[in-house]
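In this supplementary section we document a worked example of the pipeline. Step one takes a protein sequence of length 264 as its only input; no multiple sequence alignment statistics are reported here. Step two produces a three-dimensional model, which step three serialises into structure tokens for compact storage. The input and output of this example are shown verbatim.
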Amino acid sequence: MLEAYGLSDPGCVRTNNEDYFLLAPSLDLYLVADGMGGAQAGEHASKLAGDTVADFVWSSNERSGDVLLRALAEANRRVIDAAESDPTLHGMGTTMTAAWKLGSEVLIANVGDSRAYVYMSGELHVITEDQTWVNEVGRRLGIGEDQLKVHPMRHMLTMAIGVSQTLRIHSYAVPLETGAQFLLCSDGLHGVVDIEIIGEILSSNEPLEGKCHLLIDARRGPAGRTILPRWCWLPPDREPPFRRFTAAHIRRFPRSVSNSNSNP
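The serialised model returned by step three reads:
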């Protein structure tokens, strides 16, 4: 049986929280979204996209990776339509990482730079690949990691829900092992907290709620600043080291869909 917990904290800088998470154990569906767009538009985009994915999965008669991809495509269409119909929402968008348990696998679909991790067999793996200028352009140009951390393009996304009619989705199918933990988070966590710290917290004997609070404490640090992500979790295990999730552990399902294929 899966166990899940989600938590968010607005931090000490912003008054609003553009992140949104959804735990739907009755659907075996979990997701996190990080909105953008100014004023309340980012909050609207992340919630609209998250709720659309859940509604699409709930109303579908089919359980497959294609359904999850079409759910994200429908979320993309809804966010674009909402922005076009309301000038106050113009320019809004959101990242998203969704996890859907199907049988003995967890299907992961992501757009933008929100991430999915899995901690299993004593190792922490990054499942997803960021759709960012740093990851898709900067590293390919051979720019060093220290330079990328301060590069003026370091916060630039190369894809998000709500910015293009054609949506580029990264998708993965991860085998579900007993004791595995899945972590979904925005860049409010992974952009600040070292992967070693995340691994140490996941390997601890704390319950899921306690681990969420430890991650918040790690994110705030001594200065107690910034905005924190939303997390959702699946069940627990222990101990590091860390390496990127490899093709030996996962299989891919189709990665790109357009809004024309988004019917349940």
